[in-house]
């Protein structure tokens, strides 16, 4: 889940930059002089050099530049302590990676994807994709014990945990960090007790994950009975930790952010940022004041480089090199000869790559998830395959995409002579009941405006077998109250049964020359059953049966038929193909929905006939340029109930320039080409994407018994500016038809719609 709200971003910038208050009780867990240090250091010849890598978010990439200089100058390191980003770089170096390898790993990370827990939208099961059409905000909350429960972090760290596991896979068998090629410590904060925690053993990727769990941005990491977050809160430059490890000389690297200037303190947010930064800097300065004459302090010249600019992190590596080179006279006192350093490096190098073992078994920890069997089933295909992280991550992502897990971790295990994979699924701590809201607004600046408020309640694990009950309430342009039950029929959720019950009502204007001449209120009360098949997240097949009572009553106008009542009984099917990457401003993929229904005169229904519909949109992109091609088609045969089968056109990017639902009829044909170009820096991690675009559209609506008349086709076009705001997509545009109808409008809504 992504969360772009200001409080999360503020906390990210504050803490990741080292801007968090120190604990009033910063008591550390005392370290011990590791036995490996005694073997690594000949006290009679050279001192033990400890390396301290401080926290600083993206600024911490400068540590890699410092490591490059230390290696080039043949400076041996016998102990490393790191906080936050310093813990990542330090752990990688301690486990045997060379600085150039660390740089390549950081450059290869897709940071934007890393801050989204879910897999790409195309990989989500179809029911989650279609729930997004209800236009919800991206902040999911829970309801438990009569109150609202929020996630403990905007990002649960699912992809971060997988990345750390992949990078540190060679160290998977090491549980004592003294046994790494270079002894290592990660510093975290016990958020419950307010204590510093020095992690010296356990699972290395999890320890690093805990050290960088920025409060409110990343969910805390659980290790034993402790709830751990970013170590920068209590000790951003852990000098005393490396001394406790036995270091005689300390090389400390501080990458914290500077305080804001007076001119920059212009809002409550910047004042709050400055407050925590002052407290953090005071703690850091007291720590750095303990450095002695033999120690070396390196402060890379990072200026105002943002701690959140991860997409540009590798650009500060040369600054780390420059800062270390400025300290060469002091560093070279500890240099080894070429022969000695070659021996040191060889002793600490990673073991040469061996043959990748075959996965002989899969084990799933069942204590923290009620659907652990699903995870086990999705991972069974790994047995007999090579133990490759990418292959395992695909299986994990397939299960995680179901949406009920806070995280799913994995680690390699060995049982005798066999190698296997252990999976640890954890259900969302704010479930199993979730709710979400959404708000859509539109205004044509001519006195016509409407809104759509959506509230969704989802209860998972209704019977413990993976079923879900979804309740939907919509108020505004459409009034709706519905319940939908999804029940998988097999463990892999390929086959499923569904039932829905609901009420829906909306207004349909009757227009002439784009002026409203009257209006009907159409209401539908329906009960439906469906049987579905989905063996791939890209497509879905459903068979449906539905009974509905429908009525339309006049609310504006003086028409002869003031009320219409109909009943419908329909049997049908639906096929869906959906690979779109997003609904707001998609850049790749296709969504197509084809439905066919047969209406019978059963159970009180009085009309018979057929109805078919097609809606399809596909996107082509090149760089920042995007072209969305879409079509809609609807037709009827026989005499099906018109209130159940009519279609409508009108509204922005649904025949722009025409009023919403301005044209209604039994048959419809419509096509559109929408071009939009993204503006600004597309690489910025927390940017608000902005687009400039236009559309060309054409369509018409006609009734059974009428022939398609090419001359009646309405041509339309629009120009718009759009943005993906924290509250959803916003479109401001102007539409005009070839008949002279035009509208200005502002809309909160997606380019991809599902309403007719």
Task: Provide a quick synopsis of the model.
With 756 residues, the chain is α+β, with helices and mostly antiparallel strands. 20% of the residues lie in helices and 39% in strands.
Helix content: 10-25%
Question: On the 0-100 scale, what is the average pLDDT?
Answer: 87
Which class best fits the helix and strand makeup? alpha+beta
Distance between the termini: 29 Å
Q: Treating each run of at least 4 consecutive H or I residues as one helix, how many helices? A: 17
Tally of DSSP β-strands:
33
Placed side by side, the strands forming the largest sheet appear as 16-17-18-19-20-21-22-23-24-25-26-29-30-31-32-33
| Rounded radius of gyration (Å) | 31 Å
Strand proportion, as a percent range, falls in 35-45%
**Which stretches of 5+ consecutive residues score pLDDT under 50?**
1-44
